[in-house]
C-alpha cells in the first residue's frame, strides 16, 4: 500500500557543508544517510540496460557496414561519439557567448546557491552558472563539455518573481541541477553510453525519470523547504506558484490512476508532477518510475 504521509519528524543537522553554517532545522529526508542525497534505486540498473542497448546498436551497425548496408541510422550510431562531442561543445559555447554568467556581481544569489550546493555535495569544483532568456518558459538544465560543468537557468525560472518570490524554490532547483552534475549525469561517457536508448521508447525515458528523482533528492538535500515552491513553479509558473497546494498535488498521485496516467508518465523524460510531489513528500521510499 502506498503511503503519502507528510514529513513530521525533525533531526538535528549531522554534517554541515564546508564554509556554511548548518541549517536551523532539517526535516527528515529519509533515504539519505547523514543528510546526503541518495541515487534512485533503479538508476544504475536502467543505466546498465541503456548501455547494453547502445552496445548492441553499435555492434549491429558495425555488422551492417561490414555487409555493405549503409542506412542513415547506421551512420548516426557509428558517428555518435563525434556527434555528441560536437553537440556538447556547441551547447557550452552557446551559454558562454550568449548567457549572463552568474558571478558575485551578476545574479549573486544564484552564484552563492551554486557554491552552496557544490559544497554540500562534496564537489571539488563549483560548476559555472548562466542565466539565459526564458521568454516565458520555465526550465533549467545542467550539462558539460570536456572537464567543465555548468548549470543554465532560464530567466523566467530565475525570476520566480513578483509577489510569490521564493528563494527556497530557486535553491531547490539549483540544487537539483548541481545534483545532476554531482551524480555524473552530465558526463560525456555516460551520455554516449545512453545514446541509442534515447531513441527507444520507455528505456531511455525511464532512465531519465530515475535520474530526475536522483536530482530531486539532491535538490531536497540542498534546500528541503524549496520543494513545494519548485513543484508550484513547474505546475503554475512564476506568478501563481504560491497558489499551488503541494499536498494537494502529492495527494493526487494516489487518486489520478489508470492506464493513461501511467502511459503519460512512462513516455515522459520527467516523472509526472503529481508523482514527483509525492516522492518529495514521502521520504520513506524511492519515487515511482512505473
Ligand atoms: Zn532534472
Automatic annotation (TrEMBL):
Where's it found, cell-wise? Answer: Cell membrane
Keywords in alphabetical order, please.
Answer: Cell membrane, Hydrolase, Membrane, Metal-binding, Metalloprotease, Protease, Transmembrane, Transmembrane helix, Zinc
Q: What is its EC number?
A: 3.4.24.-
Main localization is membrane
Entry's Gene Ontology molecular function annotations: hydrolase activity
Q: Translocase: is it a keyword of this entry?
A: no
User: Which residue ranges does UniProt annotate as crossing the membrane?
Assistant: 46-66, 72-93
Q: Which residues form the signal peptide?
A: none
Instruction: Spell out the coiled coil positions from the record.
Output: none
Which cofactors does the annotated protein need, by name? Zn(2+)
Bilayer disposition of the protein:
Multi-pass membrane protein
According to the record, how does the cofactor bind? Binds 1 zinc ion per subunit.
Q: Which Pfam families match?
A: Peptidase_M48
Ranges for domain Peptidase M48 come to 112-187, 196-283
Q: Which PANTHER family does the protein's record reference?
A: PROTEASE HTPX
Q: Which family does it belong to?
A: Belongs to the peptidase M48 family.
Annotated protein name in UniProt: M48 family metallopeptidase
Q: What is the lineage of its organism?
A: Bacteria, Bacillati, Actinomycetota, Actinomycetes, Mycobacteriales
Amino acid at each position: 500500500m502506498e503511503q503519502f504521509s507528510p514529513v513530521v519528524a525533525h533531526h538535528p543537522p549531522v554534517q554541515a557543508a564546508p564554509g556554511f553554517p548548518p541549517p536551523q532545522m532539517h526535516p527528515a529526508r529519509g533515504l539519505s544517510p547523514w543528510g546526503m542525497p541518495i541515487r534512485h534505486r533503479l538508476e544504475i540498473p536502467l543505466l546498465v540496460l541503456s548501455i547494453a542497448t547502445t552496445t548492441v546498436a553499435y555492434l549491429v551497425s558495425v555488422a551492417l557496414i561490414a555487409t555493405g548496408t549503409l542506412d542513415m541510422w547506421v551512420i548516426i550510431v557509428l558517428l555518435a561519439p563525434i556527434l555528441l562531442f560536437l553537440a556538447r561543445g556547441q551547447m557550452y559555447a552557446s551559454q558562454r557567448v550568449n548567457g549572463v554568467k552568474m558571478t558575485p556581481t551578476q545574479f549573486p544569489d544564484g552564484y552563492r546557491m551554486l557554491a552552496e550546493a557544490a559544497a554540500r555535495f562534496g564537489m571539488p569544483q563549483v560548476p559555472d552558472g548562466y542565466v539565459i532568456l526564458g521568454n516565458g518558459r520555465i526550465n533549467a538544465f545542467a550539462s558539460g563539455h570536456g572537464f567543465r560543468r555548468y548549470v543554465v537557468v532560464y530567466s523566467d525560472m530565475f525570476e520566480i518573481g513578483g509577489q510569490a518570490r521564493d528563494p527556497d524554490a530557486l535553491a531547490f532547483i539549483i540544487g537539483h541541477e548541481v545534483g545532476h552534475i554531482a551524480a555524473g549525469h552530465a558526463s560525456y561517457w555516460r551520455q554516449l553510453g545512453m545514446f541509442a536508448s534515447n531513441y527507444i521508447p520507455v528505456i531511455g525515458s525511464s532512465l531519465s525519470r530515475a535520474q530526475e528523482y536522483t536530482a530531486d533528492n539532491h535538490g531536497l538535500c540542498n534546500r528541503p523547504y524549496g520543494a513545494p515552491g519548485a513543484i508550484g513553479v513547474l505546475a503554475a509558473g512564476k506568478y501563481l506558484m504560491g497558489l499551488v497546494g503541494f499536498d494537494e498535488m502529492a495527494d493526487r498521485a494516489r487518486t489520478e490512476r489508470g492506464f493513461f496516467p501511467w502511459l503519460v508518465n512512462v513516455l515522459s523524460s520527467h516523472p509526472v508532477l503529481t508523482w514527483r510531489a509525492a516522492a518529495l513528500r514521502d521520504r520513506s521510499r524511492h519515487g515511482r518510475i512505473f
